[in-house]
Amino acid sequence: MAKFKLFTEDSNKSPLRHLWRNFKSNHLALLGLWIFLFLTVLAILAPLIAPYGINEQHNNSLILPPSWDDQGSVNFLLGTDGLGRDLLSRLMNGATTTFGLAIVTALLTTLFGVILGIMAALSKGWRSSVLNHLLDVTLAIPSLLLAIIIVAILGPGLMNTVWAIILSLLPQYIHSIRNIVSQEMSKDYVIAHRLDGASKWRILGKGILPNIYEQIVLIFTMSLSTAILDIAALGFLQLGAQPPTAEWGAILAENLSLIYLAPWTVALPGFLLFITILSTNLVGDGLRQALQKRKAS
Amino acid sequence: MEPVLKVQALHKHFNVRAGLFRTKQFNAVSDVSFCLGKGETLAVIGETGSGKSTLGKILAGADNSSSGQILLNGQIIEDDGGRVENTKDIRLIFQDPMKSLNPSTPIGSILNEILILNTELDSQARREKINQTLLNVGLLAEHRNYYAHMFSGGQIQRVALARAIILDPKVLVLDEALSSLDPSVRAQTVNLLLRLQRETGLSYILITNHLSLVKHMSDSLLLLHKGEVVEYGETHEVFNSPQTKLAERMLAC
User: Fold this and answer.
1) What pLDDT does residue A41 have?
2) Which domains, and CATH codes, for chain A?
3) CA distances from A190 to A180, A187, A195, B202 (A)
4) How is domain B37-64+85-251 classified at the architecture level of CATH?
5) Mutate which: B57, B89, B92, B104, vs A, most A CBs within 10 A
6) Contacts of B99 in chain A (CB under 8 A)
């Protein structure tokens, strides 16, 4: 037996730890992650912690500027809109509708996309080629346009928007997952695993999935930012969330007529959308860079 | 003595597309027969595309033959492309050991998975078997928690070896496994292989282009050319008196 003791260095950690270390060194990505987590918590808690109801009208304080303005009131921190509704409460609830729903959308897309993508990767011959070429056709159309077409068929409404976005995101998703899985399938360790007597599903579960879930998370963040944009865009076009609903895109559209009179009612939801998408993209970018760095090392 | 491995008239052909509708048969391995005794080493040499890697793959079960038989201890394990479920007794060591190990799992788990799939041992026995195998190839039991990327070139070769011998196989197929190593690490690995052979009576099939290695390790030699056996015999005999022009040229250096 060895007489010396082995110390595991800090760098001798699992690939996941490696990834986290690379990710941490990117400060912008870390900032994005914090904003992302904050928004997630906000999206969950908003209905509970919002000071007013989303449709609660205060008739004696219409179009009140934010509280830091001379005419503002501390009761309405971010001011009120044309119907006397508290903007802060509406924006907080908007996090649930826009951001929360986008996360749900992206998660559902991930679920369907991973299942279908793996099936596509495992199928061979004409079945896989039919699937591939069919998906290639839909890839040629931008996802927002595809979503608008689907909403036009399903009819406007928030839930229809979600389905439309899922359907329009799926082709890219299946394509990426298929490529990733079939790339892994051709590697030596999969052959070795098969020679050990592992079945197809065991290879997939124990061999391939642990190696690709980080890349799945990466695709998830990219489809999440698309989903946020699409939900807001469809809301803005009055095709998604309908006006009384507190959804950032819908709030923007509703207050567009007040833009000269009360610019904050348009600027604030726009700014929130900007921050949300920026943080999501920062996380995705940081993750991609960290993955690349780990692959290079 | 009864040979461990006996290969009879092994054929392997691929269908290659030639033109729009026609396919042509390409013979990767044709009519290869040989015997391998317990504790012996057979070297398979040949130029690129001579079918030596295909032969190794067929023997290890990564590919199926088109016709011919493979017998292990007198039992047919592959007959005209149909293989008996037997992954335990002939194990393959890949050309690049790093690529043959799952990068996201510690090697202890990789070895554990092999034991789960192929043996009936309980978790305590599996743990002991893994520790013992790691010690046997010159690693430490602590290495079970290490990931593949944490090993050096020589160590990773030992891990690949541990992976192959943990099931106590009878034959190891080394597909260019020693070619990518630098001389000192190669010498270490060769010595390790020879020690294991002495201790456990393993048989090796050494697929390589390294002639000095062939001379050092192998008992018999099989020279392939375009899938066909050109020379087959004891190593020193083939080296001393090659029967064909091709063998003369290849073994001259």
Assistant:
1) 95
2) 94-296 (1.10.3720.10)
3) 14, 6, 9, 25
4) 3-Layer(aba) Sandwich (3.40)
5) B104
6) 187-189
